[in-house]
Structure formats: structure tokens, C-alpha cells
Amino acid sequence: MSEKIWKIFGVLGMVCLVILVFVVFISFFGRMVYIAREKTSGLPSPTLSGAPSEKAETNLPFQTQPETSSRMIIKTGWLNLVVKDVLDVAKKIAKFAEDNGGWVVSSNISEYEKVPSGSITVRVPAEKFEEAKDYFRNLAVRVTNEKIQSQDITEEYVDLQSRLRNLEAAESQLLELIKRTGKVDEILEVYRELTNVRQQIEQIKGRMQYLEQSVKMSSITVNLALSEELLPVPPAEKWRPKYVLLQSWKSVMNFWKGFSYFLIKLFVWAQVWVPAIIIIYFGKKFLKKRMGK
């Protein structure tokens, strides 16, 4: 019986080994194809461009001022930085944003086994976008990934303006209609329609205000860590075993930490559930004796 078990374990081990070798080969082959395609195409890496060609920020020298000023562009940036001091760099990023009329949207700095890492998202004026990006880059020992995206929302904004004008015209007509209507039921019907129109107007104004603010204030998210292995994996990366190993180990440790907390809580609450179990147990025995009599 024991020999059969060992044979089964041996077969399972060989199957797992074959699967592992196959996965490694596929990952390595995909990475090599990706690198070869980048070299032959002569195009920049998607992780550096970060946006489709029709929405990418070109910064061409022959682009005229009327064209740039007539468009509404939302700029967004992402940076992965290896730094010497995570907390210090995060403070400098926040200070730069605040000193230049921006603010911190979110900041999350954590420490795992005395190794800090985290991210910070700030908004800066659109005209300060390039300056802010260059300043953040200079704070790093190494920039492992950079992504910039430009979204043209001119068409959406013009459409909202048109819808707003039509709704405001409808609102004026409904107000005039209320003055002319004498019956209560007709007034109530017109008032309900007026309320609906005004609600749509407020929604459109809110959306337009959000777009205007997004165009004026660009967003930059900066991921910070002491080593590249602790930074998020860029979408184009195909093979980062060390990063996956560290993240998996971190997840396992978090699981055991949470499980230990559960055991501590269970032990503390024993003063409640242990007496309850004892009472239920002896209560059932007592009832069985009474029923037996």
C-alpha cells in the first residue's frame, strides 16, 4: 500500500514539474516576442506612452496656439520610483503640490517588516504638469515605469453646453406656462416637468464643472518603494517572479496575522461562548431526563 502511495506522489510531482517548466517557457517566450516586436517596430513602449495615439500628448513644435487653447485636455500621469526614503519623498511630493496651488488626493504609506512602500496621488495645475513630473523624477534613485495619458473631452463638453442651452430654454417656457395656467392639476403637472428639467440642468452643470476642474488640475500618481521588487508590476511586464514571490509571501503573512487575531478574539470571547455552551449542554440533558420521566 505504501509503495502505491509513493508512486502516486511521484507521478503528481512529475506532472507539477512539467506544468512549471511549461509556464516558465511560455512566459519567457512571450517576453522575448514582446522585446523583439518593440525593437522591430521602433515605437516607444506602451508603458511609457500610456495612451492611444489619437489621445496622446504630442507636444509637436508646429502645433499652433489657437488649436491647443481650443481643446480641453485632461492630463493624467503615473510614476514608479525607487527612492532612498519613502516617507521623505512622499512629503516632498505633497509639499510641491500644495506650494503650486494643488493638493493631495490620497496618500498610503505602509511598512512591512520594517520596509516602507506606498503611493501618493496629487493634483497640480495643468500648466505645472511637466514641471511636477520632472521634479518627482529627480527625487528618485531610479524610475522603473512612467505612463502619461491625455484625454480630449472637448466634444463631450460642447455636447453638454448644447444640452444645457436646450434645457434652460425649456425651463423658461415652463415658467411662462405656469403663469398662464389656472387649473391646479395643470399647474402641478407643469411643476413636475419643471422639477425634472431643473434636475437635469443641475446634473449637467455638475458634470461640466467636474470636467473644467479636471482640465485645470492634472492628476499624478506616484508609487514609491526602496527596491523595484516592491513596486507594482507594469501592465507590459510578462515575467517578474521575484515580485510575485514577495507579494505572495506578504499575502500569506497577512493571512496568518489575521488568523492569529481571530484566535485572540476567540480566546477573549470564551468567557461568553464557553458558559453558553455549558448551559445548552446541561440544559439538553436535563430536558431529556424530564422527558424520560
Q: Report mean pLDDT, rounded to a whole number.
A: 78
Binned, the helix content reads 55-70%
How would you write the strand order of the largest sheet?
Answer: 2-3-5-1-4
Alpha-carbon distance between the termini? 53 Å
> What is the makeup of the main sheet?
5 strands, mixed
Query: What fraction of the residues are assigned to beta strands by DSSP?
Result: 15-25%
SSE order: HHHEHEEHEHHEHH
For the record, the count of structural domains works out to 3
Gross morphology is flat
Count of β-strands? 5
Describe this structure in words.
The protein is an alpha+beta fold. It has helices at residues 2-41, 46-49, 65-70, 86-99, 129-138, 154-180, 184-216, 241-268, 270-292, and strands at residues 73-82, 103-112, 115-125, 142-152, 217-225. It folds into 3 domains: 2-43; 47-152 and 219-246, no CATH class; 155-213. It has 9 helices and 5 strands; from the N terminus they run H-H-H-E-H-E-E-H-E-H-H-E-H-H. It has a 5-stranded mixed beta sheet. Strand 2 (103-112) and strand 3 (115-125) form a beta hairpin. The longest helix is centred in the first third of the chain and has 40 residues, at 2-41.
